[in-house]
UniProtKB/TrEMBL annotation:
Membrane-traversing stretches: none
Organism of derivation: Phalacrocorax carbo
One Gene Ontology MF term: protein-lysine N-methyltransferase activity
GO CC field: nucleus
Protein name: N-lysine methyltransferase SETD6
PROSITE patterns given in the database record: SET
One GO-annotated biological process of the protein: methylation
Length: 400
């Protein structure tokens, strides 16, 4: 972390990092090699060129970045859930969304390493050695990139065409910790990057950067920590889209009604409002996927006649009154029609069942300082993730 040794005003430049000091696929000593092979190094993550650069620079004794790497004696201090035993991940994080995200990460890491990294290393035996540049080291470097890299934001006109910029390592900037209510952020200029204060900082206070608007489950998954309750104002809870489908089917009394729900769900899938993998995202003050949830509740609560008429219009009404009510602030949720409220209520209850413990037990644990401090670090981080999500879900239950 970084502390202020004197009072700081808003807009003060804390430090400047010249672009030559950034470690990326474009500044590594094997940049030409990576550039020539860029077609064969494409992957879903887009991280392979940087990871190859890191594999090389981390193990090359003459690397320009050795002083930087010397800050990490090894990367085993990173405690991302992907390094936790599977049973521990399942028992502590069930219901949070993290186990599924980790499973996808691990599958991608293994696939990238075997299908892209190994063939590349084998074709450059003077630079790479699979005995040294192992899958285990590769996995640790993936966690290192997750926790410490930065992505330069694209200009707005480039966003649609290019996809995100590849990640890069930014020495010094990566020392700062993150909180939702941060007091500094990183600015990108043509020649350098600058860390600038966004709030006044008093002497002795910690200087916090922002890693973006991150929910606690994302922070734990990507960075290996969660922000203690109630600090994370960006926290969210998910209701899986398939859970709402399940709740609607459970409410259908007859076979004909179940058939109607299935048709309504297929229609929502065609409109791309829902999907088997998707989730409705709830923040502290509003639904962040308001259009999708609003439409899903409305369609799944239609009678057969209403649905038939709605389908004939292609799912879009020309109704200005509807438009005004489409924003699902929590205040608007309380005005939903009773069938929509019931469906949402049932969906939240089903979501809460997916956790292994209830809100009351976790509240007692958080309120008991002595008991909380006896927990392992992993248990504490997982508790913060679960508790924040459940608080948001219980808040929604009370509203509807």
């Amino acid at each position: 972390g970084m502390l202020a040794t004197e009072e700081l005003a808003v807009g003060e430049v804390l430090f400047t990092v010249p672009r030559a000091a950034l470690l990326s696929q474009h500044t590594s000593s094997i940049q030409a090699l990576l550039r020539d092979a860029q077609e064969s190094l494409q992957s879903e993550s887009g991280w392979v060129p940087l990871l190859l650069a890191l594999l090389h620079e981390y193990t090359a004794s003459n690397s320009h970045w050795q002083p930087y790497f010397s800050l990490w004696q090894d990367f085993r201090s990173l405690d991302h859930p992907m390094f936790w035993p599977e049973e521990e991940r399942a028992s502590l994080l069930q219901g949070t969304g993290i186990p599924d995200a980790v499973d996808k990460d691990l599958a991608n890491i293994h696939l990238e390493y075997s299908s892209i990294i190994l063939p590349f290393m084998e074709s450059h035996p003077k630079i790479f050695d699979p005995k040294l540049h192992t899958l285990e080291l590769y996995k640790e470097l993936v966690a290192f990139v997750m926790a410490y890299s930065f992505q330069e934001p694209l200009e707005e006109e480039d966003e649609d065409e290019k996809g995100p910029n590849p990640p890069m390592m930014v020495p010094v900037a990566d020392i700062l910790n993150h909180v939702a209510k941060h007091n500094a952020n990183l600015e990108y200029a043509p020649q350098c990057l600058r860390m600038v204060t966004t709030q006044p900082v008093s002497k002795g206070q910690e200087i916090f950067n922002t890693y973006g608007q991150m929910a606690n489950w994302q922070l734990l998954h990507m960075y290996g920590f969660a922000e203690p309750y109630p600090g994370n104002t960006n926290d969210t809870a998910d209701i899986q889209m398939v859970t709402v489908h399940k709740a609607a089917l459970q409410r259908a009394k007859s076979e004909a009604q179940q058939q109607l729900v299935s048709e309504q769900w297929d229609f929502l899938c065609q409109l791309e409002m829902v999907g088997e993998e998707g989730a409705f995202v709830l923040g502290w003050d509003e639904v962040l996927t308001e259009e999708e949830l609003s439409m899903t509740l409305k369609v799944l609560c239609m009678s057969e006649e209403e649905f038939k008429e709605y389908k004939e219009q292609g799912g879009w009404e020309d109704d200005s009154e509807e438009e005004e009510n489409s924003s699902l602030s929590y205040e608007a949720l309380s005005r939903l029609k009773p069938p929509c409220k019931m469906l949402l209520y049932d969906s939240v209850l089903l979501t809460l069942e997916s956790y292994r413990s209830d809100l009351k037990a976790e509240q007692d644990l958080l309120n008991n300082k002595e008991a909380y401090e006896k927990l392992s670090r992993r248990e504490q981080q997982a508790l913060q993730v679960r508790y924040g999500q459940k608080r948001i879900l219980h808040q929604l239950l009370e509203l509807v």
